[in-house]
Amino acid sequence: MELHVIGCHGGETPKHRASTFLIDGTLAIDAGAVTRGLDLDQQGKLEACLVSHAHLDHVRDLATLADNRCQMRSAPLVVAGSKATIQSLKQHFFNGVLWPDFSVIPSGTPGRSTIEFLELDDEVPTVVAGRTVRAIAVSHTIDCSGFVVESNGASLAYSGDTGPTDRLWEVLDATPNLRAMLIEVSFPDREAGLARVSGHYTPASLALDLKKFRRAASTPTFLYHIKPLYQREVETECSRLTGLSLEVPRIDDVFRI
Ligand SMILES: [Zn+2]
Ligand SMILES: [Zn+2]
Known about the structure:
Elements: E1 2-7, E2 20-23, E3 27-29, H1 40-45, E4 48-50, H2 56-59, H3 61-71, E5 77-81, H4 83-93, E6 115-119, E7 126-128, E8 131-137, E9 145-151, E10 154-158, H5 167-173, E11 178-184, H6 192-198, H7 203-210, E12 221-224, H8 231-239, E13 246-247, E14 254-256
Parallel strand pairs: 3-4, 4-5, 5-6, 10-11, 11-12, 12-13
Antiparallel strand pairs: 1-2, 1-14, 2-3, 7-8, 8-9, 9-10
Bound molecules: zinc ion (2 copies).
The site of one zinc ion has 4 residues, from loops.
């Protein structure tokens, strides 16, 4: 599969974009930058968006994406996430006040809506945009899921926003065809207290957790969600970690998984 980095930071400036990764041009993971990073043609080709959790830096571009696709008479966009995440999107985002409820506004497909919400049961393999997706609960301040996306016998993992966690690493350890991981790291080690209360990794806490995964040395690990203020500091700390396959991707990088 082709992994296109649309946004890979834990905040936004003109040089940093919030989280969005694109698989084979049709499946987005998180929507922090899905309209600021994709042109209209690319937005129209999306079939689904996996949403790790309801925090704004992961969902905000769903607003403009739905609006654009509605005008383009695109096919329905599947928005998939845990039951709690979908409930939050319905109640707090597409609620007819903060933004129109695009799940009742027609798409270009007769009888179907611009957005179709799909609730993912924890760890139950579910087909989304032609791939098999599993959602795994991780450890954040609100309900948050990581994902394992499988396509043509290769799997890609996405951590979502998380601090130290167990189940994700157990699942990845038991996923033999795992080709790469997108793993969050947000704060430098000197901000470990802030990372702890906000449910995020620092390089040191991530390195400890990677010991739970037996193939950490050989599995390409793309680090994302670094806060813009700490970009250089976190990268320097990560560069000192040994025995791992860490890489910090840049906006518009493309990887073949
Ligand atoms: Zn979050
Ligand atoms: Zn976030």
